[in-house]
C-alpha cells in the first residue's frame, strides 16, 4: 500500500464543505487517501460523488475546509495549481478528448506543453501507452472515429502520459454502451494492480470487489459509510447504504 | 458605357485601395477580435468587463462616427501620425477605425465559436495542467475558429462594403472615386454606378463561396 516506503497520505480532505446556491453538496467531508490505495466512491445521483472527485484537482472550488495533496494545500488558480493538476490524472464520464487532435496528439499534448518533453520522446512514450490500452493501431485517427470504449481508454492513456501520482475517475463507464464497459474496467484493474493511487466514482460493483481497497458510500453530500468492498456489498452497516444497495442489486 | 472603359485604370486603382483597406483592417480586426474574445471568457472579472464594454460600445456606434473620429479626432486634433504623406496617414487612420469597429463583430463571432467547444474539453485541458492561455491557444480557439469560419466570412463581406465609409475622411477607395467620376461624367452616372456595384460583387461573392467551402473543409468532426 506504499510507494517508495512513503507512508504520508497522498490526499487529505478536512471538513470540506461546498454549496451550489442553496444546495449543500459537500457536508463536512473528512477523507484520507493513502499512496497506492484504490478508493471507490459509490452512492445515489446528486449525492456529491462527482463534486468530491472534481474538488481534488480543483475543477470545483470549495467553500470551507482544506484539501491537501502530497503535503501541499491546493493553490488558487495559477501556475502552482496547473502544476498540481499535471500530477493528478483525471478521466471523465464523457471522455473529453480534444476533438481537433489525433489520438496520439491527445496523449502527447500534456507531456510536450506542460512537462516540456521533446516531441520524439513524448511520441515514443505515447505510443507505448496507447499499445498498453490496446489502441496503438488507431494513433493517427481522430476521437470521433473511435468507439466510446476506445475513446475512454485513450483518455486513460492521456492521464497516464503525465506520470500522475494519482488518477481520478469520474464515472468512467457510465456513458458507455454495455459491451464496452469491460474493456475500460480491464485497463483500470490493470492500473490498480500496478499500484496506481485511484479514486473511482462508479457503480461497477465488479470493479469495486476486484480492485478496490476501500468503498466510500456518499449520500446527500455526506460520507455515510466507509468499508471494505466485501463488507460493504454483503453486509453494509448503515440503513442508507442497505437501501441504496437493495435498489441497485435487484435490477 | 464608354466612360467606364476610359476610366478603367482609375476604377481599378480605387478597388485596389478597397482591397488593401479590407486586408489590413481584416487582419488587425481578427487579431484584436481574438484578444477581445479571450478577454470575454477570461477568469479575471476586470478583463471580462473591459471586453464586454468594448464590444457593446463599439458595436452600437455608427461606423461613420468611428471613422470620422479616427480621421478628425485622432488625426487632426490629437495629431496621431503614421506618415508624412497626408493620404497615407488618412489611409492608416481609416484602417484603425475599420479594425476597431470590425473587431467587435469578430469577437462576438469567435465567442459564439467558443461556446461550441464542449466545456469538458476545456476541463480536460485544465486537468492535464495547461494554463488558461495554453488552453485557449491549443484547445479552445483552434476549434472555435474552425466553427465560425462561415460567420467570419460574413463579417469580412460586411467589412469589404464598410470600407466605403473611409470616403468620409477622404480616402480615395471605390465609393469616393465613384463620386469623383460622377462629377466628371455627369452623362454616365448609371453605367458608372453599375460598374462599381459589379466591382463589389466581384469581391464579395467569391469571398462568400470561399468561406463556405473552407468552413466545410475545416469543420471539426464531433
TrEMBL record, chain B:
<feature type="transmembrane region" description="Helical">
    <location>
        <begin position="147"/>
        <end position="172"/>
    </location>
</feature>
<dbReference type="GO" id="GO:0006865">
    <property type="term" value="P:amino acid transport"/>
</dbReference>
<comment type="similarity">
    <text>Belongs to the binding-protein-dependent transport system permease family. HisMQ subfamily.</text>
</comment>
<feature type="domain" description="ABC transmembrane type-1">
    <location>
        <begin position="15"/>
        <end position="211"/>
    </location>
</feature>
<keyword id="KW-1133">Transmembrane helix</keyword>
<keyword id="KW-0813">Transport</keyword>
<dbReference type="InterPro" id="IPR000515">
    <property type="entry name" value="MetI-like"/>
</dbReference>
<dbReference type="GO" id="GO:0022857">
    <property type="term" value="F:transmembrane transporter activity"/>
</dbReference>
<dbReference type="GO" id="GO:0043190">
    <property type="term" value="C:ATP-binding cassette (ABC) transporter complex"/>
</dbReference>
<feature type="transmembrane region" description="Helical">
    <location>
        <begin position="57"/>
        <end position="78"/>
    </location>
</feature>
<keyword id="KW-0472">Membrane</keyword>
<dbReference type="InterPro" id="IPR010065">
    <property type="entry name" value="AA_ABC_transptr_permease_3TM"/>
</dbReference>
<keyword id="KW-0812">Transmembrane</keyword>
<keyword id="KW-0029">Amino-acid transport</keyword>
<dbReference type="InterPro" id="IPR035906">
    <property type="entry name" value="MetI-like_sf"/>
</dbReference>
<feature type="transmembrane region" description="Helical">
    <location>
        <begin position="90"/>
        <end position="110"/>
    </location>
</feature>
<protein>
    <submittedName>
        <fullName>Glutamate ABC transporter permease</fullName>
    </submittedName>
</protein>
<dbReference type="Pfam" id="PF00528">
    <property type="entry name" value="BPD_transp_1"/>
</dbReference>
<feature type="transmembrane region" description="Helical">
    <location>
        <begin position="14"/>
        <end position="36"/>
    </location>
</feature>
<feature type="transmembrane region" description="Helical">
    <location>
        <begin position="192"/>
        <end position="214"/>
    </location>
</feature>
<dbReference type="InterPro" id="IPR043429">
    <property type="entry name" value="ArtM/GltK/GlnP/TcyL/YhdX-like"/>
</dbReference>
<keyword id="KW-1003">Cell membrane</keyword>
Amino acid at each position: 500500500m506504499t510507494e517508495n516506503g512513503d507512508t504520508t497520505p497522498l490526499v487529505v480532505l478536512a471538513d470540506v464543505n461546498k454549496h451550489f446556491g442553496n444546495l449543500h453538496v459537500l457536508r463536512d467531508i473528512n477523507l484520507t487517501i493513502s499512496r497506492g490505495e484504490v478508493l471507490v466512491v459509490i452512492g445515489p445521483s446528486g449525492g456529491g460523488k462527482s463534486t468530491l472527485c472534481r474538488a481534488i484537482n480543483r475543477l470545483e472550488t470549495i467553500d470551507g475546509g482544506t484539501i491537501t495533496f502530497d503535503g501541499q494545500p491546493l493553490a488558487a488558480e495559477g501556475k502552482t495549481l496547473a502544476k498540481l493538476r499535471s500530477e493528478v490524472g483525471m478521466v471523465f464520464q464523457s471522455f473529453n478528448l480534444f476533438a481537433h487532435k489525433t489520438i496520439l496528439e491527445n496523449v502527447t499534448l500534456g507531456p510536450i506543453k506542460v512537462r516540456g518533453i521533446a516531441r520524439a520522446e513524448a511520441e515514443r512514450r505515447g505510443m507505448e501507452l496507447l499499445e498498453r490500452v490496446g489502441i496503438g493501431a488507431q494513433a493517427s485517427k481522430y476521437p470521433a472515429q473511435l468507439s466510446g470504449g476506445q475513446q475512454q481508454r485513450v483518455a486513460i492513456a492521456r492521464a497516464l502520459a503525465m506520470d500522475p501520482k494519482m488518477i481520478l475517475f469520474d464515472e468512467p463507464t457510465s456513458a458507455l454502451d454495455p459491451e464496452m464497459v469491460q474493456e475500460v474496467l480491464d485497463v483500470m484493474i490493470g492500473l490498480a494492480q500496478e499500484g496506481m493511487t485511484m479514486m473511482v466514482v462508479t457503480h461497477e460493483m465488479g470493479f469495486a470487489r476486484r480492485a478496490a481497497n476501500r468503498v466510500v458510500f456518499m449520500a446527500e453530500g455526506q460520507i455515510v459509510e466507509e468499508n471494505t468492498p466485501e463488507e460493504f456489498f454483503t453486509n453494509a452497516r448503515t440503513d442508507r447504504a442497505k437501501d441504496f444497495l437493495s435498489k441497485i442489486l435487484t435490477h | 458605357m464608354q466612360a467606364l472603359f476610359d476610366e478603367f485604370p482609375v476604377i481599378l486603382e480605387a478597388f485596389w485601395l478597397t482591397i488593401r483597406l479590407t486586408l489590413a483592417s481584416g487582419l488587425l480586426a481578427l487579431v484584436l477580435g481574438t484578444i477581445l474574445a479571450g478577454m470575454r471568457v477570461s477568469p479575471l472579472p476586470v478583463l471580462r468587463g473591459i471586453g464586454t464594454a468594448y464590444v457593446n460600445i463599439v458595436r452600437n456606434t455608427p461606423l461613420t462616427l468611428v471613422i470620422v473620429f479616427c480621421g478628425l479626432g485622432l488625426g487632426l486634433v490629437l495629431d496621431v501620425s503614421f506618415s508624412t504623406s497626408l493620404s497615407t496617414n488618412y489611409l492608416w487612420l481609416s484602417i484603425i477605425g475599420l479594425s476597431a469597429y470590425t473587431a467587435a463583430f469578430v469577437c462576438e463571432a469567435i465567442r459564439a465559436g467558443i461556446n461550441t467547444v464542449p466545456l469538458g474539453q476545456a476541463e480536460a485541458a485544465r486537468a492535464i495542467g495547461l494554463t488558461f492561455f495554453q488552453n485557449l491557444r491549443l484547445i479552445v480557439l483552434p476549434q472555435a475558429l474552425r466553427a465560425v469560419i462561415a460567420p467570419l466570412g460574413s463579417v469580412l463581406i460586411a467589412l469589404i462594403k464598410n470600407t466605403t465609409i473611409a470616403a468620409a475622411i477622404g480616402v480615395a477607395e471605390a465609393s469616393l472615386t465613384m463620386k469623383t467620376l460622377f462629377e466628371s461624367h455627369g452623362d454616365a452616372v448609371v453605367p458608372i454606378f453599375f460598374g462599381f456595384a459589379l466591382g463589389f460583387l466581384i469581391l464579395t461573392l467569391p469571398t462568400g463561396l470561399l468561406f463556405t467551402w473552407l468552413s466545410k473543409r475545416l469543420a471539426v468532426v464531433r
